[in-house]
Amino acid sequence: MEITGRVALVTGGATRVGRALSLALASAGADVFVHYNSSAGPAEETVAAIQALGRRAADGAANLSDPATTAGLVAAATEALGPVSILVNSASGFPEDTLADVTLDGWRRTLDLTLASPIFTTQAFAAALPEDTDGAVVNITDVKTHTPYRKHFSYVIAKGGIDTFTRAAAVALGPRIRVNAVALGVILPPPGEDDDYVDRLAADLPLGRVGGTDPVAAAVVALVQNDFVTGEIIRIDGGGHLV
Ligand SMILES: NC(=O)c1ccc[n+]([C@@H]2O[C@H](COP(=O)([O-])OP(=O)(O)OC[C@H]3O[C@@H](n4cnc5c(N)ncnc54)[C@H](OP(=O)(O)O)[C@@H]3O)[C@@H](O)[C@H]2O)c1
Q1: Domain total of the chain
Q2: Are 88 and 10 in contact (CB under 8 A)?
Q3: Taking CB atoms and a 6 Å cutoff, what residues make up the pocket around ligand 1?
Q4: 163-179 residue pLDDT tens
Q5: Could you tell me if residue 2 is inside a domain?
């Protein structure tokens, strides 16, 4: 897929990893709709940075804790920039819970935001894609679906659902829409943690360092561009899955 002139929707596209993906798609030639929930200021700043690259951009808020908001989000992006043919599902929660203390309400909140909303955003995206247009979806998942965290029980199960969803959607939506994912390892410190926290985690990796957002952005752009890859999940983890 040639990205130039396409419209991309990036959920959670205003901050951190999502912001890097918004800017990378714009650098590759896309016009970008930057979704946000609470980060209105960073969304405006990201829109301005995309426009400075010579691309069109707009932003819009949706609280994806309610998956029913997803159809409106795709409609808002289409109204602002035209038909959306690239979707990046990056918005996510990262709550702390364990099998011992997870509550039914907490479980439902995590599954709604981190699994159901990407599914229903993809459904709305596919329904809105013009018949003569191909599309690409990239989901953002986590390498810890294979070696689970102890303290993020509902999150890691939701992301495991994203892995399966990536494969199921690739089968369901081909040949016109490809669906892939990137599984992240130690990329940025979680909100509230400092560099020392991730430096300690990175010390044990085969590549021995924190990834940062550039390798994530490069993989997402490559997955969007490559027309013969679907249902693939690329680990961006410095080899962390090997140790
Ligand atoms: N950082 C890492 O090292 C790492 C590692 C593994 C996987 N990942 C995955 O990579 C993706 C991005 O990670 P990140 O660290 O940049 O995320 P983050 O800092 O935790 O940010 C979460 C993003 O999700 C959005 N979001 C949160 N609650 C929302 C809600 N109720 N409705 C709509 N949007 C909501 C936020 O939007 P607002 O700011 O506008 O509220 C924000 O853009 C996530 O899918 C994450 O699971 C990251």
Answers
A1: 1
A2: yes
A3: 12, 14-18, 36-39, 63-65, 90-94, 113, 140, 142, 184, 186-188, 191
A4: 999 999 999 999 999 99
A5: no
